[in-house]
Amino acid sequence: MSATSRHLLDIDDLGGREGIETVMRLTDSFVEVSQRQIPKVPALRGKTIAWLFYEDSTRTRLSFETAAKRLSADTMNFSVSSSSVKKGESLRDTAKTIEAMGIDAIVVRHSSAGAPHRIAQWVDASVVNAGDGWHQHPTQALLDCYTIREHLGGLEGRRIAIVGDIKHSRVARSDVTAFTAMGAEVVLVAPPTLLPPNLDGWPVTVSHDLDAVVPSVDVMYLLRMQRERMTEALVPSLREYTATYGLTNQRVELLKDDALVMHPGPMNRGVEISAEVADLPRSVILDQVRNGVSVRMAVLYLLLGSGAELPSPAGTLTNASETSDQEK
Ligand code: NCD
After folding, report:
1. Are residues 155 and 78 in the same domain?
2. Do 260 and 181 have their domain in common?
3. SS3 label, residue 78
């Protein structure tokens, strides 16, 4: 999704650092909007966005929905569990049916890598990937970049450890691309069984020794053990995993003073992160969630807004409370 692209399917669609920075700057404007007494602007009035979630989600779905509402878009809810998908309707027919009702964007989450890309070939609407299998989760990577920038001033020259089940993680794949594009150095920390079998072309280093890595990093990014995507036991036991790769109360003491702890959620407290560590001031996990709304406002605005010009922080984004009653 360069400023002119219709879809956001992969983080690469942003065309590298410049595109990511465009989203970051636009997000600043929407953070400001989100802090207003009435956190709503008419930017996407008259646009309709449909959610097509074939996989469970708490924060991503609610975050997109909040973002759309703050931009005054209409939203169409689609629950796979109570839809004709259960009667055998194909992905293509479902997408075409939704589009026929007149929508401007579809936000898709699917357990198969590439599903949003297929939908983008079938429909004229903009498609946003909200997570496809192990493959990509671009808006998560954008909100992660934004949260690091908010706390550390930027990613350039920062060292970021991504720890845990990297093999099954679309978050890790999008984050590696986004973090390195922004000038950070990424180290993956995991047992060999939880790493992708082939890391050729990944701009990362790898370590199996978390204790050796902890003191050197600016960000400790933890991942959940994605057991629903595993077909075999990849760690001997969760207790052993926690002892070797968990951010325990002892290990967190080794972090630099200003180092951040991040997690995309949902957390498994007591496994990859101790219950106490999750609530430390340096754990910015709820900031990630908060920033997610503004980042998704920026993405939806770039795809569906006039697009001609990016709004200036205080200017183009009219406060909804300043519009006429008729417009509201
Ligand atoms: C992640 C996901 O679904 O990919 N969660 C999220 O979107 N915040 C990570 C996970 O499920 O572990």
Report:
1. no
2. yes
3. coil
Instruction: Kindly report each contact of residues 195-203 with a partner whose C-beta sits within 8 Å and lies 24 or more positions away, as own/partner.
Output: 195/166, 195/167, 196/166, 196/167, 202/176, 203/176
To the nearest 10 degrees (0 to 180), the angle between helices 138-152 and 17-34 is 70
60 lines ligand 1 (CB under 6 A): yes
292 CB near ligand 1 (under 6 Å): no
Q: Residue 126 belongs to what H/E stretch?
A: strand 126-132
Ligand 1 pocket test: which of 53, 139, 140, 296 has the largest number of ligand atoms within 8 Å of its C-beta? 140
| Residues whose CB is less than 8 angstroms from the CB of residue 257 and which lie 6 or more positions away in sequence, other chains included | none
Interval between CA 105 and ligand 1 midpoint (Å): 21
Confidence band of 323 (pLDDT split at 50, 70, 90): very low
What number of H helices and E strands is found in the chain? 10, 9
CATH number at residue 167: 3.40.50.1370
Most ligand 1 atoms within 8 A of CB, residue of 171, 267, 287, 296 to mutate: 171
Say yes or no: CB of residue 171 within 6 Å of ligand 1: yes
Position in ligand 1 atom list of the atom nearest CA 170:
4
Long-range contacts of 324-328 (CB under 8 A, 24+ apart): 327/42, 327/45
H or E stretch at 52: strand 48-53
Lowest mean pLDDT among 72-81, 114-123, 276-285: 72-81
Residue nearest to atom 8 of ligand 1 (CA): 264
Give domain status of residue 5, yes or no. Answer: no
**pLDDT of res. 242:** 95
The residues near 249 (Cβ < 8 Å, ≥ 6 apart) are 274, 276, 277
Please give the residue range of the domain that contains residue 251: 138-287
Is residue 136 lining ligand 1, measured as CB closer than 6 Å? no
